[in-house]
Amino acid sequence: MNTPTSVPAATCRDAPILKERGQREVFCGLTGIIWLHRKMQDAFFLVIGSRTCAHLLQSAAGVMIFAEPRFGTAILEEGDLAGMADAHEELDREVARLLSRRPDIKQLFLVGSCPSEVIKLDLARAAERLTQVHAPHVRVLNYSGSGIETTFTQGEDACLASMVPVLPSTDQRELLLVGALPDVVEDQAVSLLTQMGIGPIRVLPAPRTAEAPGIGPNTLFACLQPFLGDTAAALTRRGAHHIQAPFPFGEEGTTLWLRAIADEFGVDDETFARVTAAPRARARKAIANASEHLNGKTIFFLPDSQLEIPLARFLTRECGMEAIEIGQPYIHKGLVGPDMDLIPAGPTISEGQDVDKQLDRVRAARPDLTVCGLGLANPLEAEGLTTKWAIELVFTPVHFYEQAGDLAGLFSRPVRRRALLKLEAAE
Fold first, then answer.
1. Prediction pTM value
2. Which pLDDT value is given to residue 65?
3. Residue of 235, 253, 258, 361 with fewest CB within 10 Å of its CB?
C-alpha cells in the first residue's frame, strides 16, 4: 500500500483548518439591529426577550430615554418563561399597540432571543398570523438573534435571509449589492460602478420597503460583507447568480471586487482604469502612511466578527504584517475563498473557538497585535499584549478606496500607542 504524502499548501484555501468547539466569547446577533435599524427607514425590530436583551440594545445604541428608535423589546416575564401566560396572545396585543402608535412602520421583524428560543416560542407562526392580521399595510417577518449557536454578525445575515423569500420576482438583468453599509460608503460603491456603465444597481437591505429589489434568474449579486452565507444561499435558491471576489477592504480587495463585477457586465480595461486610477492611487498612499508602524509586525486573530480572513488578507498583503493565526467563527469558502487564495500558506487557520486553548496560543506567540472581542481585550492588555476590538471593525466605515487608510489606521493606532507607552516607561 502506498503511504499518503503530505502536499504543502500553496495558499490558505488549501491549508488544513483547525476546528475547535468549546467555550466561546462573542456578542449575540441582536447587535446587528444597531446598524440595520439605521438603514431600513420604515422597518421596526421587536426583540422577544428579557430585560438583559433590552439593556444590551440600549447600551449598544446609546439611545436616550426620550428617543424614538426603530427597535424595542417585548419583555418575557417570569410567567411567560414558566408557561403560565399565553405568550402568543401577549405578543399579538403588544404588536397591535405598537402598530397603532407607529403608523410609519411598513415592515416588522420579530427577533428571537436566547429566552424565546429556550421556551420554544414559535415566532415563525406568529409572523404568519400577524401578517394576515396587519396586511397589506405591514409585512411581519421573523429571524433569530440568539447567541446560543451564532456570532453577532450573523444577526444581519439572518435578517436579510428572512427577507429574500418575500422579495418580488423580476427577469430584468440587475446588480444587487448585498449587505448593510453606512450610506456614504454605499454611495461610493454605487458611484464607481455607475461610472463604469453598470446598472441598474439595487441594494439589500433597501432603505424602504417599497424600494425592495426584485430577484430572478438574471439577478447578479455581490456580497459586501463576508458573513452573509445564509443570505447568499437564499438568493441562489431564487435563481440569482453570485459574483465571487475578495471583499472590498483596502486597495487590492476593492479593485478585485470591482473587477469581478466589471467582468460580468463587460466593462473594458480602459474604462475600468479610468474610473479606478485616481481612487486607487489615493488608497495606496493612505495605506502607506497609516501602515508605517504595521510593517513587519505579527498579528493574531481570535474568532469574533467573521471579517477575520478578508482583514488578514489586507493586513498581510497591503500593510506588511505577518499573521500567526487567523481564527474565524465559521469559514464559508464560497464567500471568503477568494481572499484565502491570496493569503500564502503559513498562518494557522482555525474555525470555531475553544477560548482557553486559543488564549494559550496567544500567550505563547506574544503577537504584536491581537484582534479579539471586548471580553478578552482588557485581560490581554493587563498581560502586556496589544489588542484591537473586533466589533469596532463592524461599526466603523472600512470598505472601499476612500476608507482604506482609515482601516489601516484602526490597526496601527494600538501598535503606535503601545510603542509610546514603552518609550515613556523607559524614560
1. 0.91
2. 47
3. 361
